[in-house]
Specification:
The chain is flat, with a radius of gyration of 34 Å. The protein contains 18 helices and 31 strands. It folds into four domains: 186 residues, Apoptosis, Tumor Necrosis Factor Receptor Associated Protein 2, Chain A, CATH 2.60.210; 101 residues, no CATH class; 202 residues, Cathepsin B, Chain A (Alpha-Beta Complex); 63 residues, no CATH class. The longest helix is centred in the last third of the chain and has 23 residues. It has 675 residues and is α+β, with helices and mostly antiparallel strands. It starts with a strand and ends with a helix. One of its GO terms (biological process) is regulation of protein stability. It holds the Pfam family MATH. Its EC number is 3.4.19.12.
């Protein structure tokens, strides 16, 4: 993005219109009222008030501004009505000015010849980037003048971002601020799309010439949409302060910088595959929790390869989870559009059910043992007598580790809490058998082996006995990209306890409702992607990690309702094995043939629907069809899986009915078709 140097246009100069930088004279802009309340300085939509000399000019100016800015709802400057007495006063003032022209100083006026471009936005060629900046340099007249200026554009998340600056000087000696300087951030989609929205954070900075610590900064957090395309401050800074403190640059400019950080947009044409190489999963109704976990195990490539190798030729396509998972992984890897998932469970239940189903399906095949080799760890529960030589040890396996968030600040503290020993004494003496009897003992846990893929469940929900309901724990809880668990191994081995963070599963909301997304680092190289149902976008590492710690993080001290609830780490010594490459040659040919057939059938059906627009297919079901049907009802079978019907060589008979066709005519054609 290139910076611009421009001047505010002075009063009475010849009006010029160039894009959004049309001249606004002092007669067209009303100075800020001294009675403005402190609340008026708060963040709000831009809506300055101005008047004109005539009704026709009033309409022209407003229409031109709305056409140029695409706004008609008052988020940008609009005109205000005034009384006839005020208009008469303005006419008298104009007459006085004409009678006393000698007392008026010749206004300064700058043309586009003063524009200077400065290259600084290194990522401007990447229109999908998640952050960017705008620098706006304005040549300051020796005396503040009224005007409106628009910066050059910056493209972020395919959206067009600009800065809007307004100067409203006040020469009344009763006012000490010299007038106000307004600044707004404007956002528009490159292509209009109904219902579009994009959330962004921005820092608007007025740069100090000699001391960066004296820079003046205001922050924006806003959901931009068609009804709110700009957001900022009517009273960003007084002109008196700007002229006295911030215009000390050699070129006599006002320098503004905006740093913008935007999430992926919603309800727009967003090419996830094109900009990230990955596709998302459609949310078919309260299934976002499942999407986040499925994306995580998809990037556990050794597991994906094992799933592809499962024998599913004879599986029922409607009820086989392994076959559905094969189809899901295949579509995620080779299609360009968001994919539909296949089943629905509670998140904890879903994780365990899925792994159990896969493990049982792999028994007796070459893939047997893959699930335990990836996810299974081992710990020992011990009870050690403190006064006699006796110890009891019980080995346990685990597929995930539940970690307490309450009263713990990070993963290390939670593991210490998990492994914390307790002394059995008093009424809780340990029974050491017939030889030693009841003894004082130490009870605790020690890990013996951590798995290559370590799943950590952060216990964000607890039951509140006072309120008789579950509540979400949104306390601040940090986690690191690198994790060292040697402290918790019974026999420490650095090569078996060093991990990198692969995936963060995040929940937004409370205990009764919310939304799940996942942040994944597929190559363990620090490049993060956000998977929000069918939208996939690159994000900064801070968006994936720090913003999901929970706790009090807002500027106003309010609690975030977004926090991580599951972390997946990959052991560094197993990184190449777990994240192995998977090509089409690694997929059994029978799966490729089956899935390609399904895809061609669905494409043909979609094309037939487009070709037969205005017609509907009516399936003919006769008595014989009911006799041969042995399982679920015909309607469900037909609606849910027409592909399976074709594969089973079922005879499907259709006749086309035109919308609005008289039933008598349709019945006659149906009779001929059955002959």
């Amino acid at each position: 993005m290139s910076g611009i140097k421009r001047s505010f246009l002075a009063e009475d100069c010849s009006a010029t219109t160039n894009d959004n930088n049309s001249a606004l004279t002092d007669n067209n802009i009303q100075s800020s009222s001294p009675s403005d309340s402190p609340q008026s300085k708060k963040l709000r939509r831009s809506s300055s008030h101005h008047t004109t000399e005539s009704e026709n000019d009033d309409e022209t100016q407003e229409d031109r501004y709305e056409q140029e800015n695409g706004v008609t709802n008052g988020h940008s400057p609009v005109q205000s009505e005034r009384s006839e007495e005020e208009e008469d006063d303005d006419e008298d003032d104009d007459d006085d000015d004409d009678d006393d022209e000698a007392t008026e100083a010749e206004p300064e006026c700058f043309s586009d010849d003063s524009i200077v471009h400065v290259s600084f936005d290194n990522g401007k060629d990447d229109i999908f980037r998640y952050d960017g900046s705008i620098r706006f340099h304005i040549i300051a007249p020796s005396r503040p003048q009224s005007g409106q200026l628009t910066s050059d554009q910056s493209i972020i998340r395919t959206f067009i971002w600009t800065l809007l600056a307004f100067s409203k000087p006040n020469y009344d000696s009763c006012h000490n601020d010299g007038g106000t300087f307004s600044l707004f951030l404007k956002c528009e989609p490159e292509k209009l799309s109904p219902g579009w929205s994009i959330f962004a954070k921005a820092e608007l900075t007025l740069l100090h010439a000699t001391d960066s610590n004296k820079n003046f900064v205001k922050k924006i957090n806003h959901l931009f949409n068609a009804r709110s395309i700009d957001w900022g401050f009517h009273q960003f800074k007084s002109l008196k302060e700007i002229y006295s403190e911030f215009i000390h640059w050699p070129d006599n400019t006002i320098r503004i910088e905006a740093k913008i950080h935007a999430d992926a947009p919603r309800n727009v044409e967003w090419d996830s595959k094109g900009q990230t190489g990955f596709v998302g999963l459609r949310n078919i109704g309260a299934t976002c929790y499942m999407n986040s976990f499925l994306q995580t195990i998809y990037f556990t490539k050794k597991l994906r390869r094992a799933v592809y190798a499962l024998p599913t030729d004879s599986d029922d396509q409607l009820h086989s989870i392994p076959l559905a998972l094969q189809k899901l992984f295949y579509d995620l890897q080779f299609t360009d559009r968001p994919v539909n998932e296949f089943c629905q469970h509670d998140i904890q239940e879903f994780c365990r059910v899925l792994l159990d189903k896969l493990e049982s399906k792999m028994e007796g095949t070459t893939m047997e043992g893959v699930i335990p080799s990836l996810f299974q760890g081992q710990y020992v529960q011990y009870v050690r007598c403190t006064k006699v030589d006796h110890e009891s040890r019980v080995k346990q396996t685990f597929y995930d580790v539940p970690l307490q968030v309450r009263n713990n600040a990070n993963i290390t503290e939670s593991f210490r809490d998990f492994c914390k020993s307790e002394i059995l004494t008093g009424e809780n003496l340990y029974d050491a058998g017939s030889i030693h009897g009841l003894q004082e003992a130490e009870k605790g846990v020690k890990f013996q082996k951590f798995p290559p893929v370590l799943c950590l469940h952060l216990l964000r929900f607890e039951y509140d006995y006072n309120l008789s309901q579950h509540r979400k724990i949104n306390d601040s809880y940090s986690f690191d990209y690198h994790l060292d668990l040697s402290e918790f191994l019974e026999n420490p081995d650095c090569s078996l306890c060093s991990y990198k963070l692969l995936s963060i599963l995040v929940h937004s909301g409370d205990n009764s409702s919310g939304h799940y997304v996942s942040f994944i680092n597929p190559a363990l190289d620090g490049q993060w992607f956000k998977f929000d149902d069918d939208v996939v976008a690159r994000v900064a590492a801070s968006d994936a990690m720090e913003r999901n710690f929970g706790g009090t993080q807002d500027d106003d001290g309010s609690m975030y309702n977004t926090s991580a609830y599951m972390l997946v780490y990959i052991r560094e010594d197993c990184q190449k094995d777990v994240l192995c490459d998977i090509n089409q040659e690694d997929i059994p040919q029978n799966l490729i043939t089956r899935f390609d057939y399904d895809k061609k059938y669905l494409l043909k059906r979609r094309q037939d629907m487009m070709d037969n627009d205005g017609f509907v297919d009516v399936q003919i079901i006769l008595t014989d069809d009911f006799h041969i049907q042995q399982t679920i009802c015909l309607t469900d079978l037909i609606c849910e899986n027409p592909v399976e019907l074709l594969q089973n060589k079922r005879c499907l008979r259709y006749i086309q009915a035109q919308h609005g066709e008289i039933f008598r005519v349709f019945a006659r054609r149906l009779a001929y078709a059955l002959v």
